[in-house]
Design brief:
11 strands; binds coenzyme A; four-stranded mixed β-sheet; alpha/beta; 2-enoyl-CoA Hydratase, Chain A, domain 1; single chain
């Protein structure tokens, strides 16, 4: 494993670890349970644009043992006027969408609290692996707002409107086993095991043909938004493009 050095000498909010074809992005604000401040989101956006991430074949997102992330930084919420919120989603707040559109497979490795925007970040990944300490929840309605970084939309598509209503309107925290039962988590592992398992699964995905993975991810996203006819056409066109590229590679 190679740690990418921090040129500024200050502690980065995102730590990037290079594991060969897999890159690990660790949220690094443990004293605040990895609360997603705009500074942290901005740094994540910049790291996602870096050559180290661009050349990775799979990406693992993780936090600390106590928290994947306890959500948006609540100290910033009172300053958010409608104008600032519009600007925020054009800037650092776009990071959730950027994660969801990455061409590489993405894995969220989750321990401890996975709340609010932290849960939304995990939902923007392709798969989630949690350890038995993980606790999920979307407490926004209790704060007078709602999950607005793509989590509401992704949850409806993943588990349907009825379960989404339960999770968001009650805002209760639920354990990894419940997230697994709902299909939101692929595997629940013992405490301390989440990174080795996430790295193993990311390594498998990293070894798949990159173009097939990228087109498949894009086709799945398009399927959720298209008519059957359009989605079928996308499948067939992507197949034609991939097969052509496989032929050319011979
Ligand atoms: N934003 C900013 N700071 C946060 C935070 C958040 N979302 N979540 C936790 N923190 C900070 C706390 O303020 C505290 O900082 P301090 O030590 O400087 O006072 C530190 O992280 C540890 O949190 P603490 O509340 O002491 O830990 P806990 O184990 O008692 O409780 C939680 C953990 C997650 C239950 C609790 O911190 C919490 O409810 N956080 C807010 C979750 C939330 O509402 N997220 C959605 C926001 S839209």
């Amino acid at each position: 494993m190679t740690e990418i050095p921090d040129p500024s000498g200050t502690e980065p909010l995102i730590q990037l670890q290079d594991h060969g074809k897999v890159v690990v992005l660790q949220l690094n604000r443990p004293a605040k349970l990895n609360a997603l401040s705009t500074a942290l989101e901005q740094e994540l956006l910049e790291v996602l644009r870096s050559p180290a991430v661009g050349s990775a074949a799979a990406i693992v997102f993780t936090g600390s043992a106590r928290a994947f992330s306890a959500g948006a930084d609540t100290s910033e919420l009172p300053q958010m006027t409608p104008e600032r919120i519009a600007a925020y989603y054009r800037g650092s707040g776009s990071v959730y969408d950027v994660v969801s559109r990455l061409p590489q497979p993405t894995v969220a490795a989750i321990s401890g609290y996975c709340l609010g925007a932290g849960f939304e970040l995990a939902l923007a990944c392709d798969i989630r692996i949690a350890d038995e300490t993980a606790q999920f929840g979307l407490p926004e309605v209790g704060l007078g707002i709602l999950p607005s970084s793509g989590g509401l939309t992704r949850l409806v598509r993943a588990v349907g409107a009825a379960v989404t209503r339960e999770i968001i309107l009650f805002g209760e925290r639920f354990p990894a086993t419940e997230a697994y039962r709902l299909g939101l988590v692929r595997e629940v592992v013992a405490a301390g095991e989440v990174m080795p398992v996430a790295l193993e699964r990311a390594g498998f995905l990293a070894a798949q043909p990159a173009l097939a993975v990228a087109w498949t991810k894009a086709a799945i996203d398009a399927a959720a938004e298209s008519s059957s006819a359009s989605s079928l056409l996308i499948e067939q066109l992507a197949y034609a493009a991939l097969n052509r590229s496989a032929e050319e590679g011979k």
